[in-house]
Amino acid sequence: MNRASTIDHIPLPYWRAALAEVSLLHPEIPAASKPLAIGFEDGEWRVLQAAPSVAAWTAAQFAASKARADGKEARAIPFLLMPARLSEQARHGVKWGAGDLHLGRTLLCIPCLLERSGVLRPDPERQPWIPRDLLAPTMKPVVIGELASQDQFIGSLPLKAASLGDALKLASELFAQVTGAALPLLPAAEDGESLPEFALEGHELVSEWHGLPYEPPVVARHLIRLYDQIIGDQPALPLLDCLRTVGERPAAPPPTIAQAEAWHANTVGHINHEHPLSPSQREAMVELARLKDGAILAVNGPPGTGKTTLLQSVVAQQWVDAALNGADCPLILVASTNVKAVENVLDSFAKICAETGHERWLPYQGGFGLFLASESRESHHPTCTAWNHSFTDHETQEAVARAEKYYLAKAAALFPQADTVDGVSAALRQTLQYLQRKMQDIVAARYAVFRAAGEDAGEGAQVSCRRLLAEQQVLIDAAQAAIEAAQRELHAQEQQARVLEGGHQRMREEIDRAEKAWLAYLEGTPWWMDLLSFLPPVLRRRQARDRSFLLSKALTADLRHRDDGLEQHFKALRERAARQRSQALLVLKERRAEVERGLVAETQRREVAHLARTKIDGIFRRWLEVLEDGYEAMRDLALNDLNDAIDIMIRAVMFGLADRYWSGQWLLEMRQRLIAGESDSKGRVRLEAKYRRFAKLAPCLVSNFHMAPAFFTAWQGRDMPFWNTIDLLIVDEAGQVAPDVGASMFALARKAMVVGDTYQIEPVWNNGEGCDRANAVKFGLLSDVADARYDALEQGGYTPASGSLMRVANKACRVRKYRDVRGLMLVEHRRCVPELIGYCNELIYAGRLQALRQRIPQEQRLLPPFGWLDVAGQDRRAGASRQNPEEAQAIVDWIKANRSDIEKHYADQSGKPTPLWKLLGIVTPFAAQAAAIQRLLRKEMPDLLHKSSRLTVGTVHALQGAERSIVIFSPTYGPSFTGSAFFDQKPNMLNVAVSRAKDSFLVIGSAALFDKTKSSRPSGLLARYLFHPQWGAQLAGARKARLVV
């Protein structure tokens, strides 16, 4: 492959190969196994001694092996040699925990081929290995070395072993490199260096050769078979293709509340009658409603943010929606690799009736979850295995008849007219559809108010409408006032025009009278004056006489005598009057046009406001109308709060109705099956029908990834996986699922929701980077082991050596809530007090988590949010682990001294003290320290280790997915330790440890490990909280009277 080319898809053989290597796990030596003697004889390595004889023993091994060659018995079978095992020390003939004496931990596995003659040859396909669960990181209590050391050794091996002797030498060198010790039965290292014999405190080394035929254990078998089926059949698998596509894909932000109307109107899933979903949970529900077949929704769920509650609503959504549409009962599978996560999901679905008061209409009261498990797995929850299921007793003819009678009796109170199961089911579906329409009407009406009110999601509906009506009334009143003012002005203009015309007319009349008077004056002038006017005295007298007349008239007062152009004067007066009239009328006309335009505009404005007011009034009336029949409490609800009310008042009710509907459908199906005499089988159609029938009573199917493929693979002469059949695959705690473990199940589903947190416990990877790089080259992902493109695969989470399904799902998700977090994120945190989650928020979550719990007042506290007790004990190595005996003793002493106070402080409502094991957990980075604490507890407080009341003590895995009021952290390192502590290598460990505590997180160990000046380290940041003057406090030692100094 060209180094410059891009990687488009992860080849499935690459993930399959990683799983095949996972199968190199911990073989258990059978109780009946007898020690062997092997050696080199007659030029061959062979079994020299076995009970009862080598021949009989060899025949038994071949009989136990499943190996065949072309339908015939094989000439040689895959075989494992084990030179030693580790057994817990026993007291008085009984191991701690009363374990069987014969059981022990196999330390080293040497694969070989066993021939019928007893000859042993090296296995050309496999190298020696140390069982994975003995290598750190691991959740197991015994650790003898690091996985990285084994990976480094295997990655540096030259050619494969040519003889069993070479294989034994390789095994010896492997064990020496990983543990720094030797096993007595193996050849010494070739470099001549003398190594100590392996030893581990609390255990005995049993050096004996044992052997058994080797087959990949069940833990990986079903997954490997599913991969083989995918690779062989090559079906079209859109969801799996989406998951294994590499590289950046476009992502959009989730819709805002203004854009989400259509999806809110069709969200029908919720269960709890008292508590609605949080905003970020609802955001996930909207995205689920938008999710198409072949697509993946990634939901990042930090601790305490309600992942389990979200899963309940998701299951309810699928179940109720199918009931509404009269569709087949959906197949919903919740899968995980975390045992605690599986139990938590089953617990939550088992408690629904008790927590909500819901009454089922069937005698079956097993809860809404069904555990798909192996035959050997014990659970108090309803379980389905390959051969048995919890519904067996409910599916007999007598049980179904009783159930039908019970169902109809319960239904009679709600549907008195329906007297058949068919009739009740139909009535229930009609009621569901009525509630759906009611919900859709409410959502549509509220969004109409929202859009009309200017899209303020925080304002109440009634307040919005009244504000809008008032605003429109103000506009109407203003327009009306302007209209009335304009009308008054127009009327005044008409009056003014009439006045103007009258004035003009009077002026003309006055001019006419003045002119007539002048003419009459002229006629009355003596004739001799005109005749003798050439004489100056006569002329002066006539002019004086004219002047006297002209002065007597206002219109001629400016003239002196008749020779001043009186005819033109009167003409000019008339023209000036006409001009003044025209100018005044023009001004009036222009003003009138302006007022009339304003009148039209104000009239239109008034009509628009009237229409708007009518529309708003109609919207408000419609809002009030849809709230009739019991939903009036929503009258003044803000859009931000609408879904909260619908969750409680409608969706939770719909879940109960859907349960009763599906109960009826189950009865109808069972009646038909009994009439037809049908039975379940492994055939494709009947197997799917069985699971859909079970889902009518228990809609949440839960399994672990290693077993799930077996349940969803039919048999009709060959394996027939349920390609693209599971309606919704939900992955819980996906941050703990390696991609190779989880990917193949996506071939069986139509769509998937992946929930987890990459900053909590990581997967227990079974493949080292060296082996993984080699596999990537082998399957064409890389050109060579140094190819830089491996880094991109690693960063995307695709590699079995360091990846997680959560990271891969984030890459595949088409929605991005935050710039640096692809997918969605739940942010409302309800578990811890604000001081505790504040540390996690600052350490990892960029301040996005919203602490919803209130601070506990100081006077109500028994312990501070953060407490510390300095212990100066020195740590020491215990194999590849560590322990600190003095610190362990200090923890146990502190618990003994304060147990009574703690139990009383957390007493129940009746005043009864709460048992300590329910309140407190102890977390440490090291399995050996956990074992040391357990030994002391067993000695000093044995009641805390009873099976039914066991105090949780372990690494962070022990509390993953759980919570306690108080968590004690044992750092283990002593004050002389230098370097980087294990819990500082990544932030995950302290994030999980602190976030498990609801009220108090206590560190009992060396306080010097926590240095505020090293704030870039998780422990340095924790120091700021531990030694904070308000949040942290020093604990009193066990001999003090008080809990806190």
What does this structure look like?
With 1045 residues, this protein is α/β, with parallel strands linked by helices. It folds into 4 domains: 25-91 and 98-215, no CATH class; 235-443 and 639-763 and 804-825, 3-Layer(aba) Sandwich (Rossmann fold); 486-598; 831-1034, P-loop containing nucleotide triphosphate hydrolases (Rossmann fold), CATH 3.40.50. It is built from 29 helices and 39 strands. The strands form 13 sheets. Strands 19-18-20-17-23-24-16-27 form an 8-stranded parallel β-sheet, with helices on both faces. A hairpin with a 2-residue loop joins strand 31 (876-878) and strand 32 (881-883). The chain is elongated, with a radius of gyration of 46 Å. The protein starts with 11 loop residues before the first helix and ends in an 11-residue tail after the last strand. The model is unreliable at 91-102 (pLDDT under 50).
